[in-house]
Design a protein that fits this description.
By secondary structure, the protein is of the alpha/beta class. It contains 11 helices and 13 strands. Helix 5 packs parallel to helix 6 and helix 7 packs across helix 9.
Length: 332
């Protein structure tokens, strides 16, 4: 990660990254460790986390790991003890899975979130930033998406994220904690999980094209997404935790590039980079999916000086290079 997203000395600061063994969380934790944080503690129950990500982080002396679940309040207190800043990434993420398992999603994403807020308040954390989602926009048709205009949720997953934003507002008002939510738009990059029934689209495409196994596109493939490289998510978390702009707190922000591409375009870009003629298979549209997604990122630019550092094409090159290494190792 060649970019530096802060200019404050963090050598006396202690950070907690929940879900830090996962995709986005491990990138945030690694950034903090690389830039000399006094302590970077990760809380993860390893349901969506990976030992290989912990291995990367544990090469730094400032790293601490707690294996535990945000559904347990005592664990959340233990994790927040002595912490200055929290980046809360721990959550269950899949729309289709949330439709199958709404109670589980509520327990983790809402119950766990409230536990973390309570622990952060009681441990006097300076600021707390958390992952929300573009799914909160639901059936609001206007493009680009602006933070203050949301529609009805289309899935239990979206409902949990909308509920997180409501709780954050209440905790800010009632307890005075500095909070900030980030509506991620289709974050992608190295370390994203390519396996399992709910794997993300880009790793699935790359794996299927390389192995010449069926690659599925839901519906006609003309649905659009604001695909956002993971470094941009890291940037907003770092800037959010460390900002001195009092106006920036107790708001939610779009985290995206402000560009959109169809799923068909994405597939073709992956196939072209992999020099493959492998064709996708179209199937029924997926329940709960938003048709088009494009973010207005001016609020994040104004309040947090957020500036997308890597656009779609450059991010895809890096991501495919990473997965080519992973898959060629698996086959060797």
């Amino acid at each position: 990660m060649e970019n530096q997203f802060h200019n404050k000395d963090i050598s006396n600061d202690c950070f907690l990254v929940t879900g830090g063994a996962g995709f986005i969380g491990s990138h945030i934790a690694e950034y903090l460790l690389k830039h000399g944080a006094k302590k970077v503690r990760v809380l993860d129950n390893m349901v969506n986390g990976f030992e290989k990500n912990i291995a990367i982080l544990s090469s730094y002396p400032a790293f601490e790991f707690i294996k535990g679940d945000i559904r347990d309040l005592d664990t959340c207190f233990q994790a927040c003890e002595g912490i200055d800043y929290v980046s809360h990434q721990a959550a269950l993420g899949s729309v289709p899975r949330s439709i199958k398992e709404p109670v589980y999603f509520n327990d983790v994403n809402v119950g766990g979130f409230v536990n973390m807020l309570k622990a952060a308040v009681d441990c006097k954390v300076k600021s707390f930033v958390y992952a929300s989602s573009s799914s909160v926009y639901g059936d609001e048709p206007t493009l680009p998406k602006v933070e203050n205009r949301i529609g009805n949720c289309l899935s239990p997953y979206a409902a949990t994220k909308k509920t997180n934003e409501l709780y954050a507002q209440v905790f800010a008002d009632v307890y005075g904690i500095k909070l900030m939510g980030f509506r991620y738009f289709n974050i992608f990059g190295p370390r994203q999980d390519p396996d399992g029934p709910y794997a993300a689209v880009i790793p699935l495409f790359v794996k299927g094209i390389m192995n010449e196994t069926p690659v599925y596109i839901n519906g006609d493939g003309e649905q659009t997404r604001d695909f956002t490289y993971v470094d941009n998510a890291v940037q907003i978390n770092i800037k959010g935790m460390l900002t001195e702009n009092a106006e920036a707190f107790n708001k939610v922000y779009n985290v995206a590039c402000g560009e959109y591409y169809s799923v068909n375009h994405l597939y073709q870009a992956c196939a072209t980079q992999l020099q493959s003629e492998w064709k996708p298979v179209h199937r029924e549209p997926r329940a709960g999916d938003i048709r088009n997604s494009l973010a207005d990122v001016s609020l994040a630019k104004n309040n947090l000086l957020y500036q997308p550092v890597k656009q779609f094409d450059a991010g895809l090159i890096d991501t495919i290079a990473f997965f080519k290494k992973v898959y060629s190792k698996q086959h060797s």
